[in-house]
Design goal:
The complex is a heterodimer of chains A (220) and B (221).
Chain A (H helix, E strand, L loop, with lengths): L1 H16 L1 H21 L5 H23 L4 H10 L2 H30 L9 H31 L4 H27 L4 H30 L2
Helix pairs in contact in A: 1-2, 1-5, 2-3, 2-5, 3-5, 3-6, 3-7, 5-6, 5-8, 6-7, 6-8, 7-8
Chain B lengths: L1 H25 L14 H28 L2 H36 L8 H21 L4 H24 L1 H4 L13 H5 L2 H32 L1
Chain lengths: 220, 221
């Protein structure tokens, strides 16, 4: 547990030291949102949601790639300090925090530029959309942490990471789309429960699989 | 003894496929609204998916073996995993092709936003990504390790996707979303007598093709 704390603290310190890079996800999200706004200023609720997920997905992918994009010498040092599963755990947490931040920024910016869809104007509806978005983003983060680790072992190629991640993310995307569509339509929590649970499963499964497979993947 | 068993299952697989081809085209089928004669596609389209999943399972088994065994044995297992994945993609393409033709005449479009079709697209894309990953690593041992871990990770997510998610949403496929299932009243005993042998036969043929490809690869070395 102490190693987890140490690794986590280092990740936080590294983020703080390179805060300009950490802020770049938010900047990417802002630029992407503005680009979308200038192309389609008044989208339908379905398009609004699709554009939001696209922005979140690509911002999160950058965050995940960066988490495992470290010099070999640092990995050699970290490997002596902690187990591969612990490294994946801490890095997944780091990716999750970045993804949640970008998702929150995207929702805020979409609300600012486009406004919330008509059916999702109430506070309760906004809360539902936020919960669906956050859980979906965590599901993305869990899958992309593992594929980012894989891509870093294969030579840190961002294109490879995208190639490996996108097919694996489709299940999470479809579950997240369903949950967020119901949330945007302001359906009851009871209706939302199953898709939200689906998002939790799509988050837990890659984490569990990743922690089992990481020792094999991380072997030198 | 081993040789005798090998000949027996290969002969049985070939015989079952021949039987299903003939019976699939000639045996009587239930007369159903919209489906009509296209119901026969059950004998040719669905076994392709069963075979694809079975071969992906074979590939998964070899990937697990490659991670557990060091050295040459691990590399050989990785090679088998690759070959099984390649053959499974051929069956996936055949399943997709037969399904698209059927969909055009039954649903009016080659492709729809159906959870099962999405599952197929995901499965094919995942295994194409698997080959991209393999081609981007030069060192054979490292390649075996990375490809093996990806194969296991991807297979589990894919099974959850194609097995669980379609049940959460409606599908145009028979048996889903209120559409009549082949398993309820459409699939009478006559259809079962052709469908199950077709599935078993095609899985056998698929495994045989993988075995031949493994031997061919060994010979070419």
């Amino acid at each position: 547990m102490k190693r987890w704390w140490t690794l986590g603290r280092w990740a936080l310190q590294a983020d703080f030291r390179h805060r300009a890079q950490s802020v770049q996800f938010i900047l990417f999200t802002a630029v992407a949102t503005y680009l979308v706004y200038s192309v389609a200023p008044s989208p339908s609720p379905t398009v609004w949601l699709a554009l939001l997920w696209v922005v979140v997905l690509f911002s999160a992918m950058q965050a995940a790639f960066r988490a495992f994009h470290e010099p070999e010498s640092l990995w050699a040092y970290l490997n002596q300090l902690a187990s591969p599963a612990a490294i994946l755990g801490v890095k997944s947490l780091q990716v999750a925090v970045h993804t949640l931040l970008t998702a929150a920024a995207a929702l805020l910016l979409f609300g600012l530029f486009f406004g919330m869809p008509e059916s999702a104007q109430s506070i309760e509806a906004v809360l539902k959309v936020t919960v669906a978005l956050m859980l979906g983003s965590l599901a993305f983060a869990a899958t992309m942490s593992f594929t980012s680790a894989l891509a870093s072992r294969a030579g840190s190629n961002p294109t490879l990471m995208a190639t490996l991640s996108l097919p694996l993310l489709l299940p999470a995307v479809l579950v997240a789309r369903r949950a967020s569509s119901l949330a945007v339509a302001n359906q009851d929590w009871a209706e939302l429960a199953i898709p939200l649970f689906g998002e939790v499963v799509m988050m837990g499964l890659p984490l569990a699989l990743g922690s089992v497979l990481m020792p094999y993947l991380w072997k030198q | 003894m081993k040789n005798g068993f090998s000949i027996a299952w290969k002969t049985a697989a070939a015989a079952l496929v021949c039987y299903s081809l003939v019976a699939g085209l000639a045996a009587p089928v239930p007369r159903l609204f919209i489906l009509n004669e296209t119901i026969r596609n059950l004998y040719f389209h669905v076994p392709m998916w069963f075979t694809m999943i079975a071969l992906m399972g074979v590939s998964l088994g070899h990937s697990i073996g490659s991670l557990q065994r060091p050295g040459q044995a691990g590399l050989e297992a990785d090679q088998k995993a690759r070959l099984a994945a390649e053959v499974s993609l051929v069956f996936a393409s055949l399943g997709l092709f037969t399904g698209m033709i059927w969909a055009r005449f039954t649903w009016g479009a080659y492709w729809t936003n159906d959870p099962k079709l999405n599952g197929t697209a995901v499965a094919i894309l995942i295994y194409l990504a698997y080959f991209v990953l393999r081609s981007s690593v030069e060192d054979p041992e490292k390649r075996a390790r990375l490809a093996g871990t990806f194969n296991i990770f991807a297979f589990v997510l894919m099974i959850v996707f194609i097995g669980v998610l379609p049940r959460m949403t409606d599908s145009l496929h028979p048996g889903n979303g209120g559409n009549p299932a082949f398993g309820s009243y459409d699939l009478d005993s006559g259809m079962r007598a052709v469908f199950y042998p077709a599935v078993l036969g095609w899985i056998g043929i698929g495994i045989w093709i993988v075995e031949l490809r493994v031997r061919l690869t060994r010979l070419s070395k």
